[in-house]
Fold:
Amino acid sequence: MTYCVAIKLNAGLVFLSDSRTNAGLDQISSFRKMMVYEKAGDRFMVLLSAGNLSISQSVREILQTEQLKDGDSGETISIWNAKSMFDAARVLGAAVRHVHERDGAALKRSGVDFNVSMVFGGQIKGEGMRLFQVYSAGNFIEATSETPYFQVGESKYGKPVLDRVLTPETPLDEAAKCALDSTLKSNLSVGLPLDLVVYEADSFSTSKVVCIDENNPYFRMLHDSWGQKLRQVFDSIEDPAWGGGATTVPIMVNPARSKPLKKITNHTDKLI
Structure:
């Protein structure tokens, strides 16, 4: 399976992807799911992919040479000369449709769905950072301040952490720590190594690119301490005090809108 997450903050962008494609007792395969496109001083873009591996690899290969005819200006656009990330995302969408037109019918005859999902983000000189999620049809949506991140693949385990921690003002290093959350602890279909990229706004380049395996000291520390710290926070929250007493947060109160359940004894105890 796959886990990819991309986060857009005021300070920059964070991208993380795992490398597992098949999970099972006797077959586990690893393929990198992140691609970095950089033209120092002009543009920096990262592509994360999930879904059918043959489709995503084809899209990644075509994207580097794909050209899109702009209907308004008549210019030919590629990711290397696009003047905005929106136009670059349009080129990516065209690459997805190109692969579908070429392989979609053959895949369908073999009983294989055309399944690919991608996250594409970065910055082109002259505009701010932008982040998009691209679907199998080549259409896409853009991240907003209300939803500053996208996940693809096995997203259900990491989402609660992201929702509680992330805001547009979150520092980059804190967001990177958040991305390296408890997903691997909770989900055996996601596996090492992880690829992590941290991009600072308006830099159009980055040196913060790392491949994290099981021997990475920071990841081992985070992985080992996550459960301990979570338990400490849980234990620090007051237990329900059914009898009231000294607590300032009683649980036995009359709700404003709903009545409590009543217990009726009739041979057996029932709650209604």
About this structure: The two ends are 44 Å apart (CA to CA). The chain has one domain: 3-213.
